[in-house]
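Researcher: I'm preparing a figure for a lab meeting and need a structural model of a single chain. I don't have an experimental structure, so a prediction will have to do for now. The sequence is pasted below. Please return the structure as C-alpha cells so I can convert it later.
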Amino acid sequence: MKALVYHGPRDMRYEEVETPKPQKDEVLVKVRSVSICGSDLSGYKGGSAMRVPPLIMGHEFSGEIAQLGEGVSGFKVGERVGVVTNLYCGKCQDCKDGLQNVCDYRRIIGTTMKAGSYNGAMADYVVAPAEKIMPLPDSVSFDECALVEPLSISLRATKHAGNLQGKNVAVFGSGPIGLMGVMCMKSFGAKRIVAIDIVEKRLKMALQCGATDAVNSKDDVYGITRKLTDGVGLDVVFDAAGFPETINTGIEIARNGGTLLLVGMASPKMEIEYKHAVVKELRLQSSYMYTSEMREGLQMIIDGKLNVAQMITSRHPMSEGPRIFEELASGKTSDIKVILTNE
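Model: Understood. Here is the structure written out cell by cell.
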C-alpha cells in the first residue's frame, strides 16, 4: 500500500509500505478521509516527542472495513466506520477511575506513546481493535467523521464547565479546537459566546460556527468583554491557545468565581497572574483528550446538533501530503482544517 511516512523533521514521503494485517479481534480499515491535526504538524516540524520516525501519522480519520480479523463479529466488509483512537489499557488505576485519557499504558493510533508507536491513517489502510470501531451512518460524510476526534477534545472541555445555560463565555483561539468549543458551548445553551483571535478570517469562521461576538486580540479585550457583559465579566473562558498572553487575559476577563478551561498547549511553561486568579477565586480546570466523548460527539453530528463540515477549508489526495504538510508548516496558508483523502 501507499502511505505518508514521517522520516524526521520536515521529511514526509509518500511511499510504498507493507499493508498491515488484522490480528485477532482487529479489523483492517480502508482509509477514506484523514484530517491533519496541529499535533501532526508539530511532529512534522520536529517539535513533538509523540512522533518518533519512522511513523505513519493520522489519528483523525474514517473509512470502510476492508477485512475482519479472527474472532471479530458484528461488522461486515464494506461497512462505513469511524475509529476511537485512544487504545487505553482498561486495567490501571487511572482507567478504573474513568481517566482513560491519561492512562500511562495507552497507545494512540498515529502517534508514539510510552507503550510504543502505532502507525496511523495517513495511508491506504490502518488496523484498529474491533472494540474501537464506530458504525457510521450514510447521513454523516467521511470528512465529518474525520473531525469527530478533535470534536471530542472540545466536547470534554465544555463538559468540564458545567451548566452553561444562559451563561456568558469566551473562547480564545479560533482554530479547530476553539471553533468546535464555540459549537459545543452554543449547543449547551450559552447565551453569549465571544470568540477571540488575532486572525480575522478565523474570527469570521467563529461567527459562522455560532459565536455571538468576535474580538481581535490586538484590541481592548478587557474593555470590550466588560461592555458585552454589563461590567460583570465572563462566566467561562475556554482557552484553546495556551499562550501566557491568552491565559492571563482570560484571568482578567473572567468574572469573580468564574471558570478558566485550560485546553491549548502552545507553551509548555509559562508565568501566569496567579495571585489575580486566586483573589478572584477562579476555577482553573484543565482538560486533555477524551474518554467517552468520541462516541458522544459522533451522535451529536448524527442528530444534527453540530455542523463540523463548515470548518473544512481544503481537501487533497493523500499523494499530495508532503506538499500540504510543508505548506502548512510555512505558516503562510489560511487553511483552518485540511482533509487528505483516498478516493
